[in-house]
Amino acid sequence: MADFCENCVLCQKILSRELESHPRKIADLEVSTAILSSNQICRGYCELIYNRGHVTELFRLSTEERRLFCEDLNRLAEAIYDRLHPHKLNYELLGNSVPHLHWHLIPRYLDDNLDPHWPIWDKKYKPVKITEEAAAEIIRKIKEKL
């Protein structure tokens, strides 16, 4: 297991157990925590946060940890796809703003009215907030498959 970083916002959320009680937490998986994003610009947009320490690059994980992290990603992606029926799933592993391993899983729909060639965090897009009831319903659907 890697060390945690005192300057990393995700490490601090893990250490403070904030992720454990996060209101939009979907599940703890093998080596990560799945959260429904506060920005629901695409219904079912989730984040998958590596929770075993501070790691900034996928290649820095051991082969086994990388396999487990990718399996967690696959499980969450399949659950989103199966329960929410997007046209396509986008996977982003950037870390430019928050340099801690975490995936963005972005379901894309034919009617989402977003440019298919630009990421959803492009400046021209405004974040979409949904009610807690709507969030709970999406979380319930995804958890049913997990």
CATH superfamily: HIT-like
Number of domains: 1
Physical arrangement of strands within the biggest beta sheet = 1-2-3-5-4
Q: Count helical runs.
A: 3
Low-confidence stretches: none
Outline: globular
What's the level 1 CATH class?
A: Alpha Beta
Give the tally of β-strands.
Answer: 5
Evaluate the radius of gyration. Answer: 15 Å
CATH topology term: HIT family, subunit A
> CA-to-CA gap between the ends?
25 Å
SSE pattern, N- to C-terminal: HEEEHEEH
Beta-strand level of the residues, as a percent range?
15-25%
Secondary-structure-based class equals: alpha+beta
The description of the largest β-sheet is:
5 strands, antiparallel
What value does the average pLDDT take?
Answer: 93
Helix proportion range: 25-40%
Q: What is the CATH architecture annotation? A: 2-Layer Sandwich
List the helices and strands and how they pair.
Layout: H1 9-15, E1 25-28, E2 32-36, E3 46-50, H2 63-84, E4 88-92, E5 102-108, H3 132-145
Antiparallel strand pairs: 1-2, 2-3, 3-5, 4-5
Overview of this structure, please?
The chain is an alpha+beta fold and 146 residues long. The chain has one domain (9-145): HIT-like (HIT family, subunit A, 2-Layer Sandwich). It contains 3 helices and 5 strands, in the order αβββαββα. The chain has helices at residues 9-15, 63-84, 132-145; strands at 25-28, 32-36, 46-50, 88-92, 102-108. It has a 5-stranded antiparallel beta sheet, covered by helices on one side. Strand 1 (25-28) and strand 2 form a beta hairpin. Helix 2 (63-84) packs across helix 3 (132-145). It is globular. The two termini are 25 Å apart. The relative contact order is 0.21.
